[in-house]
Each structure stands twice: as C-alpha cells, then as structure tokens.
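ok here's the first one, seq then struct tokens
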Amino acid sequence: MALKPYKTLIERASDQFVVNKSRFIGHGCPCETEEQALAFLAEMRAKYKDATHNCYAYIIGPNMGIMRYSDDGEPGGTAGMPIIEVMKARGVTNCAVVVTRYFGGILLGAGGLVRAYSQGAAIAINACRVGVMHPTARYMIDIPYPMLSRVDYFLRDEPVIVEERDFGAAVTYTLVVRTADEEGFIAKLVDLSEGRIEPLRAEEVYLAWPEEAQP
C-alpha cells in the first residue's frame, strides 16, 4: 500500500495559562506508536503527580486509526473529548497531548472546562509546531567523476536532499526525494546522463520536509 502524507507534531513542547486561579499546562509529543503515547502520558503523570488532573488524548496511525482520550476525573466530556477534537481539527496524528490542571479553588463549570481544555490542547500543539511527514524514496546513485559537476549543478534545483557522498571508483550519492516528485526527478536524471546513471531505489520511508520544500 502506498504511503500517504500526514501531519504531526514536530517536537516535544509545552505552554501554560491561568484561568480563574486554575493553572493549565498543555504538553505535546510526537509518538509513532500507542506504546510511546502511553509512555509519554506516564511520564507526565509522574512529573505532575501533585496536579489535580492530567487529562489526555492521543491519535496514532497515518490514517488516525487509533484514538484514545481521558477526562481523568473531570466531568464527563469536558476534558479528553475537547482535547482530541482540537487535535482532529488541526489534522494531526502520531502524537499525544496532555493537559495538566492545578485547581485554583474556583469552579469553571462544564462550558468553562471545555474552553480551558480546548485552549490547553491548542497551545500545546502551537508550542510543538505542526509539520508534514511525506512519503519519501531513498536512492543510491553512482556518478562517474566526469559527470560529477554536471550532476551537482542539476541537483541544486531539484526537490531532493543529498544525505551522503561516498568517493570511491565513482561517487555514490545517497539522496531522498518525495515520492510525489520521484518519477519526474528520475526521468530527468536518466535523461541528463543519457542512461549512464541507473538510480537504485533503496526504501520508502516517512520524512519531515522543510516547509519551503513541501508541495
């Protein structure tokens, strides 16, 4: 099955705010498996074990196949559901969000809790930043020395990232290209070399591409 692009959190991060003396801390973390999401939750619960609540949600899988959330003692539907709804609205997956609350003595009511936990999820996602993971092909390419400068000049304007150069009998480049750009890039490279360069496709993986390089 062909891989499809998906959005996720770029890095772990957190942010916080206070409403009616209650302190809310939103934490986010990229996670590729449910085990990683549960480990992040356990870490947050241990770190903030003195907090009143550690409510959470996580979504796993490029197609968002696994979705879990918990109100952690808050009234039903006022914490976990708002967190996961914010995540779904932002379109992120393979990540977990935990919103920690230190109760300040003033009740917020159901509507106030929904707004607070929604805000906690939003600031967590914003702190982590959202990126796109693109299906990406990795290639090994042997370049004859007489063609090296021509190929280097060609690669400067192509949507590829050169990961390694190995100088031996020829120069072996390891590079990656988004699968969306793959066919056109390979055709141009073969044409440039008049068929003397035969790219070897090593694997297809997910990689985060710089924003300016995204289609």
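and now the second one, same deal
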Amino acid sequence: MSVGRRYRLILLGSDEIALPAFKAILAMPSVEVVGVYTQPDRPAGRGQEIRSNPIAAWAKEVGLTLFQPEKLSAVDVQMLAGLNVDLGVVMAYGQILKEEFLAAARLGFINFHGSLLPALRGATPVEGALALNLKTTGISLQQVVRKLDAGPIHASAELTTAPQEGRVALRERLGALAADLAKDSLPKILAGESQPVPQDETRVTYTRRLNRQDAAIDFNVSANEIRGRVLALEGWPGSTFEWKGLVIKVGAAVAEGEPVSAVAGTVLSADRDGLRIACAGDICRITALQRPGGKMLPVADFLGGCAIPVGAVIKSVPMPPLVGPQPFPKVI
C-alpha cells in the first residue's frame, strides 16, 4: 500500500452484524470513509415508531455522510462517481447492486458474507449453518459480481460453532471475525496485491429469506434437525407448536440419541427435566417454553400453568428447507 495515501471508501450495510467490520475499517489510518449507504428508517417495535437501523445510527453518531435510498438509482451512480471512490465495502446491505453502480468505484466492491463460500449463498447463511448443524462456518470476503454471492474469494476465516449456540451468539462472533478479516485483507486489496480465487461451482448451496410460516415444527424429522432449527430461528420467527389453540414457542431443545418407536409428536414425559417428544426414531427434549404474550420459562415452570400430559400427540407441520442446491424462487 502506498505510503501516506488515503483510500476513499464507501460502506454499504443495514444489519448490526456489519458494525464490527465497519468500525475496524473506519479506524484504519490509510482509509477515508466518504459515505455510508443503508436502508431507510422504518417502523419498528410494538409502537411501530420510525427508527434507524444500527448502521444508520452508528453513521450518524460518528458523523459520516449517510445515504438511505429506498432503491438505488442513476442518481446514486452519479453521486458515487463524483465522490471518486476507490472501493465499496458491503455487508448485509439488503439491495442488489447493478453493474453501473459497481463500476463507479475504481476497484469495484467487496462483500463480507457470513459463510464459507460457495456454501450457503443468499440472505440467511448464519441460519442455514445452524439449521444444518454445521460444526464449522465462517466469513468469506469476495469480489462482488452480478450473480448472487458468486464472486471470487479474496480471503476467508472460519470458526467452530459452539454447542447449543443460537443465531444471536453466532452472528456476534461472525461479526467480530469479519472485523479481523477486514484488518488483515483490506490493505492488500487496496494495494492491488490480492488475487481473488474463483469459487467451486460444483459445491454451491443456497439459503433463502425467512418467513413466519418457518416457525412451525415437524416432529416427523430427527431430533437433531429440530434442535438445529430452533437455534437457527432464535428470535424471529422462532420455533413453535400448537397446543389446545395456543401457539407455544420453543426456547431450547436437545437431541437425545435414545431410539423410540412412538408416533412422532407423542409426549413421552413432562417434568422439570423437560418435555420429551418422540421424533423420527429418536427423542427431542424441550427445556424452555413460552405462551403467547408471556415470558420464556423453564419447562417445569411452564407446565405449572399449562399442562401438557404424557401420551398427548402434538401436531406436526411440514418444515420447508432453509438450504437447497438451487436458488429458491423469489417470493413476491
């Protein structure tokens, strides 16, 4: 990297997972962040108050120029060209970048993606890794091209998922990993010393956006698959089953290796150790439950106010896959 030169960067992100990397980039003495692109302020919370996302709030706090278009347009292309940007850095932005926008930065755009590409391309790589019970995942730093997460890889870093680690904790660790990757790799990219490597297209898998229907649990799958699904959907939309007209939310689940021949969904025991439910050949032990409008409680406390008797059969609902070998159809 040239001594004394400051490279002009623009950052694009809308999700909290990008904050550690963006903060690390802003702190680099050879970098000048000339603007931040993020999603517009939107209604949030029970009161539906208009709020800034974490990236917008941070940009305002540190005094960076902020751009929040509903959709990128020719105006943004002209603006970007006028800023003489050397490089664009993207992480969890939420909009597709068109060719003319990508071409407006001298070195193009790079993207931090929350998986070890080519696995888990798409919108929900963190959730996909958890749903598949992957033991390792990571961050890939790729050159952006006009095909979903298909650009060549500049660098990557991996981590081992922790037992019973859910989406919130894994996202936090991946965000920190992205910051380390930025410190190590960005100077080489800016100096033209990084030669990105094409992805192996024979190993590609895809993720998709989540929806409310993903919450329902199907006990006709293995307990390990249910466990991964609960961890992946932590927060929203969560994992739920219906009992006597109530939609019960599952807070934690453990896969037990003990074989069982009971009908899937059958409650085998219900006590302070958990709600043990028959699955496809084994047992899922649920240890935390929540009623609508209530708090997440240990099973023993929950059952004190909402009994689920041994022998009851909880209805299963098919669970559409979160990961597949082909891109998922767009939901209109």
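notes on #2: DSSP finds eight helices and 17 strands in the chain. The first helix runs from residue 19 to 26.
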